[in-house]
Prior knowledge:
Helices cover about 45% and strands about 25% of the residues.
Amino acid sequence: MSRSQHDWIEGYTIFLQEYLQEGRLSPEIGDWIQEAIAAQIPLSTLFQWHHHSLFQFLQQDLNPEHWPPLLEKAATFQSHNFSLYNLKKSLNYPVVGPVLDQESVNIPSKEQELKLRENTEFEHLISSMCTQFMWLDFRELDREIETAIGRLAQHYQCDRAYLFQLGGDRQMAQLRCQWYAPDISPLPPLWHQIPVEFTPWWMKHLNEHQAIPIHSLQDFPPEAKAEHAIASAIQAQSLLLLPLIDNDQLIGYLGFSTIRQSKIWGKDCIKQLKLASELLTCTLKRKQVELTLEHLHEQMELSIEQRTQELQDVNSQLQAEIRERHQIENALRQSEVRFRHIFEDSPLGIAILNTEYGLERVNLSLCRMLGYSALELQSVNLVDLLHPDDRDLTHTLLNRLMKGEIPSFQIKQRCIHQSQEFLWVKVIASVISTSDSLVKSSQVSPTYGILIVENITERKQADETLKLIQFTLNRVMDSVLLIDAHGQLIYVNDRACQTLDYRRDQLLRMNIGEIDLSCRTSPWKEFWNQVKSSGFMRVDSVYQSQSGVEIPVEINFNFFQYQGLEYSCAIARDLRDRQKAEAALEKSQHLLAASQKAAGLGSWEFDLLTQEIFWSDEVFRIFGQDPTWEKPPTYSQHIRQYHPHDRAQFQQVIQQAISEGIDYDFELRILRSSGDVRTVWTQGQPIFNDRGEVIKLFGLIQDITARKQVELALKDNEMRYRTLVSHIPGIIYRCLPNQDWTVEFINDAIEDIISYSADDMMSRMVPGLAILLHPEDLPWVREQVKFALAQHAPFELEYRMIARDGTIHWVYEKGKGVWNEQEELVYLDGAIFDVSDRKQAEAQLKASLAEKEVLLREIHHRVKNNLNIIYSLLDMQSRQVSDPGLNDLLLDSQKRLKTMALIHEKLYCSKSISRIDFAEYIHSLVLSISASYRMQSHQINLEIEADPVQLTIETAIPTGLIINELVTNALKHAFPGDREGTVWIEFREIDHGQLDLKIIDNGIGLSSGVSGQQSPSLGMRLVSILADQLDADLEVQNNNGTGFHLRFEQCS
């Protein structure tokens, strides 16, 4: 609003206020303005909304003579001619005179006229809204607010308008009303409630009383992401939010949005809509105030109604009390007369009691009840007439009664009759009060007590009897049901409730047909007549419990009449346990018969009174009889079934059991009808009557013939075993697998070996076998035994034991573990033999062998020396021989001697005097041969591959000679001149005892006819002979050199 417009409005406002006070306005406009003031609408705001309507009122209401003062007052509040011009124009006042001339008037342009027209339309709209809001009932304001925001939206060409109001906790904005164009959808339900914390940017500006114009969605700042999302969700192209402010606090906001196209929100538009939002704020506040006033009004009316009703009730109560007092006074006069008659003629005992519990007055019935005269009763205290056990409780109750703590009490107690017998009485005690003076108000103090005494001794006895009957019936193991002639259940005991799974109150509302299945199939009336005619009936039936379980029962119906009515007492016995017991009995009888048959054990019974004997099936079989058709014998016949030598013993035992009443069991022989003699075991015990007399004998009998035979066989085997064990020269033992190896059994041979007796060991005088072992041997013996037991394998050991006299014995032990079914080690069984003599012989033999080994080494040494002497003699002879052929022969003989001497040298130098390491021997032999020919390393290469095989002298000598001959032949003949080559010597053990020898060269090869025993060469013939001696397979290859392959077994 411009300054000129503001001054113009202020002028109008002052004018209206003065004219309103002077009464110069018509009643219609005056009342209208007064209502606006009552609604707390400032006149300046009222004028902004409705100034056109005011002009019309003023033109009709004011006398033109009043206009000049109006213009003068308006001129004092403005400095622009615009206000005066419009004011005069509105009043059709001539725009002439000293205040205003024609030249000073600003005539509006077309644009201003258009804008003025828009403003005028807005003013008409606001005026119409204000009129509607002012005169409309507040209950219809919500609908009118929705219409108003729709008109505003249409005026500003918006597609949607809405008003949100904040809740009481100011955490949620709730949609109050909305308007939307015909072709536009309403706000989605999702956005009818918007949490305040979800729109922080909006709320910040609205709380600062700022309007939020959004010309397009791009105008949203980055921090308004949530608000942008909401605008996108409701398809808004542009929107305007205006705060609704009341008492400087945000209570909601008004919103307008366009959907089809964006809109530029001008400043005038925003100002005008702000004015509309203020109008809506006032309207909302008006509705809130009127709602509050209405609520207060309703509460006040309700309070008045309640107070009026209370006063009416009090008045009615006072009138009723007055009437009641008159009635009480009349009743008291009548009551006094009646009381005198009741006191004197009542069959109940009545007494007046003073504050000291003395009997002031008694009637004749009380005197007769207690056996005293009236004077006697009036001279005693009430408490003295009571049973000692009841006095304390009664005294306490009387105290409280006289003090006014209780108005009355009732008690059952015992009184003492004049005959010193006790009577059960029912006492009802109350007080007779007297009023004090009027000064003490209407307070009442008890003065006398009145007692009404009823003799209930017979009733008490009947109650006790009834309780006893009830207690007895509830302890009965059968269901007891009392039934009337219509089948209705009158009484049920606890067992019936437990069996049928109903509460007692449920059963007492039921008919017998609801639980007895047989009553559902046959008419109850017919069955009742049968029970009535017979007086007693026993039937089998089936009850059904609440859970549907069918219970077989045996029912005894007893008919009787009481006080002219017919009843039946049904006693139902649950047959489930009996049926189970019968089934179990039958099953047990079958099992007993089967077990007796399996065990060969029969049961019998002898009745002394009838002399009858009962046998089970197995007894018949024991005596060789058929139980299917034969009967038990008589007592005299039964005696003849025993062996003649045992009959007297049997009769003596039976007579002793009967006369002394003692149990017995013994073994004797019986004679079967087939003539077989069997041994039986029999056991019996007497059965007594109430007088302690033996009336029956009951017992068992078992055929133990097979057991006797087994026992005899076991005794024979045991004797054989003991004889065998006692004659074994070694220790036979069984011990526990503990630390001491505690002995459980040991034979007498231990005394012959280490001088301890078997009793010493089994009586624990010696803790166990472990203590008898030599301390140096015990640790490793334990380890060996432990290792063998872990493998479930037997163990064999040789160790030393210390005898009683301290001597040491070498022993040999062989033992094993004994495990139970749970794989637990329970025993160690074994045998120990004294091997001291063998150990001594072995020591002597080892000494002898050592001596012989020294002699053999000396022999090998001497043989080697003798061969070397021969070698030296041949060497000396060869130096004197000039014939080359003869010289070669001597040289070959020397090498053969060297070969054999080398073997003897290896033998006496090795650890074993019977075997040599042949691989080492080959290397030494080939080295010696190559040295004898003074080979050059670059001419002939010798390669040796030999396994470290130990050969006996029988195998080593011929094998060494073969290697000597073949290697010598290769060095002499395979590489003539300066020819170079290689000789391979390979010696392998291809299998246990199987040897493989290969000597190969890559020389010129053998001439034809050189190999074999027919060869002219002595060396080849010697190789063939030696191969036959070894029983070797000899293969000769003569292709690109020469190869010899021998395969043979080592000689033993």
